[in-house]
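Need the bound structure for magnesium ion, inputs here:
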Amino acid sequence: RKATVAIVGRPNVGKSTLFNKIVGTRVSIVDDTPGVTRDRIYMEAEWTGRRFMLIDTGGIEPATDDEILKGMRTQAEIAIERADCVILMTNIHEGLTAADADVAAMLMKAGKPTVLAVNKVDSGGQPPMDFYEFYNLGLGDPVAISSTHGLGVGDLLDEVFAKI
Ligand code: GDP
Ligand code: MG
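Answer from helper R.:
Posting the output first, comments after.
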């Protein structure tokens, strides 16, 4: 079967924006309001000549704190079952959250290859100090990206393919 990569993360971190950037079209709905990715979306994508399936696990994303964790756990379960590698997405604006740590632990426990992406790092060069807190998740080197600008997305996919 084709290599499958799933994007998991809190509502509004930028999963659908990254998904669209990678597949090259606006398939997944991007919105400021958490909860707008209507369904799980699967699309074929290509990186350096390798075809793979990409999943935006967003689904119907809840907006309340207790529901967010539940939603993320469901995303992670789907990713553990279906994907060869998971992109756990966070963002620099909101920083590291307890839900991120919970899901990181789930993925590690399952032994699922995971790459940690820190989105919304919109300026190139040295990442801001807040970036370094993401090392605390224990998933290795976080990759700074800007999904809207496309910065770091190639590095992220290189990391993903290094783990598949
Ligand atoms: P999702 O809920 O995780 O799927 O997040 P979306 O892709 O819908 O994005 C949520 C909001 O964050 C939208 O307003 C996006 O335009 C914005 N966003 C996504 N990626 C970036 C980024 O790299 N930089 C900035 N500044 N905003 C972003
Ligand atoms: Mg979405």
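Comments: The beta strands are 4-9, 41-47, 50-56, 85-91, 114-119, 143-144. Residues 4-163 form a domain with the Rossmann fold fold (CATH 3.40.50.300).
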